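Quick one, T. Sequence first:
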Amino acid sequence: MKMKRQQVSTVLPEQHQAFNRLLGDPVVKRFLAWDTYLRASDKYLLAMVIASFSRAGLFSWQYKRIHFFLALYLANDMEEDNQGPKQAIFYFLYGKNRSQRRLFQKLRFQFFCSMHCRAWVYPEELEEIQAYDPEHWVWARDHALFF
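Structure tokens:
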């Protein structure tokens, strides 16, 4: 008989609080409103942001707006075959100015390394992250409703 391995989330309440604080950031708010079809920021990708916060090892008070976008970019990198959502993040942040993209990619790599290169998140962990506060408005961001 084969036992199924129970996946236990290591996400702490502090990471949820850091995520919620960043959702109140005016730039993050504008991005989420701008992504009307939820291609770059649906509920699963946003749950992956919280998982990334947990794995990166920063204190919750250290998370800044850039960490939100780095984690969201990594989530899109892991989950989406289409380059469009990642390019949308760049376009939103920097417009047509490509000079900042190299710095963003450097920061993305450092953030990924701080996560011990563990960007993959199991579906069970995503469900557990969403179950922490199931009535939160971000969990209604389901891009499958658009197709």
